[in-house]
Amino acid sequence: MAVRLSVNLNKVALIRNARGSNHPNLIQFAKDCEEFGAQGITVHPRPDERHVRYADLQPLKDVVKTEFNIEGNPTPKFIDHVLKVKPHQVTLVPDAPDALTSDAGWDTIKNKEFLSDVIAQFKNEGIRVSLFIDPDNDLISGAKEVGADRIEFYTGPYADQYLEDREKAIKPFIAAAKYCHTIGLDINAGHDLNLDNLNFFCSEVPYLKEVSIGHALISDALYYGVSNVIAMYLYQINKTR
Ligand code: PXP
Questions:
Q1: 181 is an active site residue
Q2: DSSP secondary structure code for residue 56 in this structure
Q3: Phi-psi region of 234 (alpha: psi -120 to 50; beta: other; left: phi over 0)
Q4: Which of 5, 80, 112, 179 has its CA 20 to 30 A from that of 12?
């Protein structure tokens, strides 16, 4: 099964918000990304709504024809909105309210009760739940125990180490992916993936279902244009090494 590309639109919303108008139009942008080949749309509302806003969620859900993924820290407000909008997938992330970006996965052991409760609420509404997580077997077992359907590997450390020693950087992800498979957890991945490091990740890590990519893809679109960039990312995902 091919790995799906979900395009994270937070940076598009950030540009829109800079001028207080509706340009670029986030909803049209989502539709265009799908037309150009994206197999999913991801957004990550943060408490200060500096990127995507809670009010964007339903209009996005109304137009997305592929898969709609909402990421974020499950605060009461986030939970309420996600339960109302019912995306295909919710990805829970333990980011602090003032975090510049997500920079660590869940401690699924310390947060066992909280996560079990929150995940049950989403699953009752038929929403698939993924947990942002580091490649560690104990934390992965914890994700299974609290009822997650998937995990999303936090790939920041892989991207940081890629140029220096990519074989070393990928090792924990390969081992953790094999473990996920043995216990029946599906696998997504994201953070700092780009045109340089994406192909190696997708070719080496087995059982991968989806990558979600925002910052690098939208930055590359400034040079190449959105339709070209989506084709370029799909090429990196699918080409054999
Ligand atoms: N996954 C999660 C949980 C994230 O918070 C982000 C950033 O919003 C991404 C993936 C995408 O990361 P990037 O913007 O570096 O591609």
A1: no
A2: G
A3: alpha
A4: 80
Residue 56 to residues 10, 25, 101, 121, 234: CA-CA distances in angstroms? 11, 11, 20, 22, 26
pLDDT tens figures, 41-65: 999 999 999 899 999 999 999 999 9
- Determine the structural domain holding residue 36 and report its residue range: 4-238
Please write the tens of the pLDDT for every residue from 171-210: 999 999 999 999 999 999 999 999 999 999 999 999 999 9
Asked if 140 contacts 183 with a C-beta cutoff of 8 angstroms, the reply is yes
How many Å apart are CA 185 and CA 140, to the nearest integer? Answer: 9
CA 7 – ligand 1 centroid, Å: 10
Structural domain count, the chain: 1
Maximal C-alpha separation, the chain: 49
Helix count (H) and strand count (E) of the chain? 10, 8
pLDDT of residue 103: 84
- Distance between CA atoms of 152 and 167, rounded to whole angstroms? 20
60 CB near ligand 1 (under 6 Å)? no
Helix (H, G, I), strand (E, B) or coil at 21: coil
CB of 134 sitting under 6 A from ligand 1? no
Contact indicator for 88, 67 with CB cutoff of 8 Å: yes
Domain harbouring 153, CATH code? 3.20.20.70
Cβ atoms of residues 93 and 71 within 8 Å: yes
Which candidate in 34, 51, 67, 71 is catalytic?
71
